[in-house]
Amino acid sequence: MIGAGYVGLVSGACFADLGNNVWCVDKDKRKINLLNNGKIPIYEPGLSELVQKNYNSERLKFTTNLKTAVMESDLIFICVGTPTQKKTNSADLKYVFKSASEIRNYINKFKIIITKSTVPVTTGDKIESIVSKKVNKNFFEIVSNPEFLREGEAIRDFRFPDRIVVGSDSQKVIKKMKTLYDPLVRKGAKFFSTNRRGAELIKYAANAFLATKISFINEIANLCEKTGTSVEQIAIGMGLDQRIGSRFLRAGPAYGGSCFPKDTKAITVTGDKFKTNLSIIKSVIKSNENRKRYLTERIKSILSNKIKGKKIAFLGVTFKPNTDDMRQSSSLYMLPYLVKKGAFVSYYDPSGKKEVFSKLTNVKYFDNIKDACKKTDLIIIHTEWEEFKALDFKKLSKKRNFKIYDMRNLYSSVLMKKKGYSYFSIGR
Ligand SMILES: NC(=O)c1ccc[n+]([C@@H]2O[C@H](COP(=O)([O-])OP(=O)(O)OC[C@H]3O[C@@H](n4cnc5c(N)ncnc54)[C@H](O)[C@@H]3O)[C@@H](O)[C@H]2O)c1
Prior knowledge:
binds nicotinamide-adenine-dinucleotide; 15 helices; three-stranded parallel sheet; 13 strands; 428 residues
């Protein structure tokens, strides 16, 4: 596994757990040192135990030395980041191409090189041309095997995936990939093979579609707020139609994370490159940007447009629960905006203090819910961590008339009203 991040480390540990011998390579020495000392650099439930078990049995090894790892392996997964290139909004492929040009130096026998990183359609062709500059085509095959795991559920998703997608033009290689995944296929996972470009595009199309579903229900939630209807009821009624399905119809803040924002942008750039206007996805991107502003405006109106001097507590700042990942979280927009307008923000997140907020004045981290909410005018539930689901709000804020803005609809608005809280939620 080249790249020991969320994808490389989780997949590496899971492949080792299936009985394979796995090297996880990362150029980040700090990460590899931590891993070799029994520490996990990311927050992912169950990962620590899994890594420890397979490390102890010597099936899972960590190194910064790409040479040894490549020479000893039959299959090489590229799992490096593909962040948004700021100027163009396309996927920045420099880490992928760098990995390919390093791997090609150590091909001592036939290798299958697989991109697990999310890469735009035709990237496999480019990797092939990079490697073939140094290695005879008979000694390697480039395959696409996009990753669909979700942070926070990553191990379960690896073990019980909805589907495994493999793209290659070689039936022989597809057969080998199927053998690798056989333990999962035997437990019911669907193995779907197609050509390489097809697999690359499936990943982007799937992410863009899921992002569309979220933005869609978020906009419907706005309409619910104006029409005395409840978005949850609408979502249930819609989701019962099997063509629609109920999942991913939960209204909330703008979607964030390391995938949807960057992948929606990247696919529209790819569309433009191939002279295809992906207008639906373009408007989803806009809708999601508007969502950040919309909810921030709502915070303002809940506070009667008086933000200056107000104390606001954020419960959860990550883009979703069970991860420490802050990439593109909507809190990154909200917190700076609120302190700029004169608010004092306290926050608590079960995954710990966030470096990204440490430079902001008037933003303070607390390591427990109670201290973060003491004396607050407004409690915002931003991320749906389990521990926010049964709070006794009366015991939390000492302020009279404090307000609650539940961006995840964790509580019943009827019950909250009965209890006398000034409670606001989404799409109700
Ligand atoms: N995070 C997710 O939930 C998720 C899910 C599905 C797909 N993906 C895709 O998988 C890819 C990886 O995502 P991630 O979240 O694991 O990224 P990450 O940033 O957590 O990890 C990438 C790792 O690659 C390492 N790296 C970069 N260049 C290297 C090189 N030349 N040699 C060795 N190591 C190198 C980095 O140091 C880093 O540790 C991306 O394309 C992403 O879109 C991510």
